[in-house]
Structures are given as C-alpha cells and as structure tokens.
Here is the input.
Amino acid sequence: MKIITLLGLPASGKSYYGKRLAEELKVRFVPEIATQLIHEKGYQIGVNAPPEFDRDVFERDLEMAEKVLRSQLKTIVWEGGPVLDYFFLEGRLRLGTARKEREDVLRLYDNSTFKELSERTTYIFFDVEPQVSLNRQGERSKPELLTPDLELLKIIHNRLINFYKKNRNKSILINVDKTKEEVFEEVKREVSRIT
Here is the structure.
C-alpha cells in the first residue's frame, strides 16, 4: 500500500489538493482528524485548545492508522495525519497550558503503529509562510477552523521544514505561490513518479 500524507499549515491547500488528488487517482481520501473533531465536538483550537482535544486527536489518529495499515487498498491520501497533529501538539505544549497532560499525550505518539505508517508513507508538504497562512485563513467561511496564533504557526512551520529536510527521500516540497491549477499539475507530476 502507498500512503500519501499531505502536510502544511492551515489554508495551505491540503483539503483542496487532497480531494482532487484522491479523485484523480480514484482512491480514498482521509480528511484531517482534528478538523473532524472540531466539527463533531465543538473544540476550540489553537494554543487554547483543551488537552482533551489532543487526546481525542491522538486516539482517532491511532484508530485510523490501524485501519489504513490493515486496508487492502492500493493507495490512500491522508490530510495531515499523525505527523501534523504531533507538531500542533508540540506547539500547544510550548505555548499553552496543561503541560503535564500534553506531555503525556506527546509520548503516546512514539509507538509501533505510527512507525510502520511512516515507513509506508510519502509526504507532500505544501509550503506556505505562517503570515500567509494567517491571511488565507481570514478568507475562510468557517471561523471555527481559524488558527489565529502566529507564534503557533511559526513553530509548526519550522517543524515541518525540519521534517522535510530529514525525510527528503520520501517527501515532496510544493511551493503554493502559484495558481491552483499550476500547483495541482505539479502535485500530479510528483505523485505519478511514486505511484
């Protein structure tokens, strides 16, 4: 199985390009777990998200990872995945409250399921600067998905850049400072090399 995980800051295009890519490849698209939970349970996000949110995200990530690894599907496109959720948790740990609870959840991400998932994954990183992410989020029609904490976005962006550098052999960097069609054509070209 080939797992394609889409990484990037909020409003970088993960949902848009992920859905289009899954449709183009005729494969399953797994939407961002955190976003699903925000809609289902009304969690506040950003630095002030409660620690229960982080635990729920972890549990849902683990459940989905186990399903993905057991799946007989040839390819899956996953928006965000455990990597992005881990980076958000790290950022909230540094800037927010409930440090002990968040540290406990952070340790849970070090497990064999996520390691196996990572071994089978190719990452597509939609690179957008934190301030640009913040500006783009302001254009969204869903305020509950706004991550307004610039410092949090900077931490996550730095972690994503470092992750990309350490995992170049299985990561694709996409600059989104182009038209949507140009970005999508680049994504398709890059993915065709690995599928």
